[in-house]
Amino acid sequence: MVGDAKKIEMPDFGRARVSQDRFRGLRCVHTHLNGERLTQDDLTDLALLRLDLMSIIQVNERTGLPDLVYSAHLVPSTAEKIETKSQSLPYEFLEPNIPSQLDTDFIGLINSLENEMARNRGTARNRQTNRDRVILVGVTTGYLSEAEESLTELEELALSAEAVVLDKIIQRRPKIDPKTVLGRGKLEELLVRSMRLGADLIVFDTELSPAQVRALSEATDLKVIDRPQLILDIFAQRAQSREGKLQVELAQLKYLLPRLVQGQNSAFSRLAGGIGGRGPGETKLETDRRRVRDKISQFEKQVDNLSRQRQERRKHRVQKNVPIISLVGYTNAGKSTLLNTLTDSKVYAEKKMFATLDPTSRRLRLPYEQEVIINDTVGFIRDLPETLVAAFRATLEEISDSDLLVHVVDASNPNASAQIESVEKILLDLKLNEIPQIIVLNKSDLLDEDSLTAIERQIEIDKHRESVSISAIQPRTLKPLVEKIGEIIGKVAIDDSRSAIAK
What we know:
The chain has 15 helices and 16 strands. The protein has helices at 40-48, 79-84, 106-127, 144-160, 184-197, 210-220, 227-238, 242-256, 284-319, 335-343, 386-391, 393-400, 416-429, 449-463, 479-502, and strands spanning 27-32, 53-59, 66-74, 91-93, 133-140, 164-172, 201-204, 223-226, 271-272, 282-283, 324-329, 360-366, 370-376, 404-410, 437-442, 467-469. The longest helix is centred in the middle third of the chain and has 36 residues, at 284-319.
């Protein structure tokens, strides 16, 4: 390679000899004409290209002969550093020396480093039972504290998807980079971290465009997904019923359609013409898109059928004049646990995001011989993918016939206020905000009395509503809630009777 006084253009080495447990088998030795030592660009190239060694030779200004040689090599993260997410430098510098006195057994050094990389990765893999190893990335133009909160939630999502979170990176920028989201320096840092920690996957805490996914995948040589895709993946893991699986697959196809693009190894140039085709026929990409559109159309018809069946069941319940109560709230707020305690049921409940996807209905007898149907619904989350909301409309329609919404809030969560806002925004978008609502502060046993009183007062000021504090795992705390439900349902029944008489 021949460069100028400012830079050297590195050739494209392709994927030759690259694997996660070894270096590339190439050493880069070049001159620095102005007396510099190893620069950040040198170290970045060392990491990104997975070179065995990066060396610079200084040039003696008087004689023009080689002077000191400065070298650096990569250092694999130990298992302990991966666990603690240590931010120590991933490089080690060799003692500078003149060329004739360089005596490092470099083959031996590289072999020992590669053995350590393989051993660390194997140990981590065995301990984590082959789960995806991810790095989470947040980019914001707003407040850093909000980005940190959102990234903490993304970490919960990743853990719910059975992933191992290796690291979290946040960048605050005046403007999001339209191509790579991150700035150049932060992207280089991400690449170094992902390579050093042995990451399989990078998850961005924002929705990425198809072009951004492609650019980031090419830059990192890793699988890159965004927040909506992670949520869709969790839904796909959790869906149990035929209806749930159908709605998740519909959402995934709608998400996939605009992202069907020409890939590095795609058969984009192949034509699917032949007998019965006009002109050159369709490209492979066009065929894929057409098939996805056909599947979307087919699934939407099935979802419509399910919606009609649900409407018939709801009509039957309405005819019996049995009031309907729906538990709504942020994911992992404790709705299923509350349903189980109220109705002595055994609905699946776990401390995971989106543990409930398939809605469940149970009968509940209130005081004064009132009987109601209580529905457990899918949890909400901020930035819920629109495709998912659309696909789950048959399920969400179940809420629309409710006489009362019990909005369950995890009072112990530091972001409880923001979660209430997110749920109410979704209810507003679904035009369900007119239904009477009780705010239930769950997990109140995890808070001290002053903190709980402060939250209750804040809800009263902001929402002009009373709230009821409970612990869904302690039946004795539910009496005020049951009485409040009975009181509201009684009022609704009286109002309905008056409306019927007026008509």
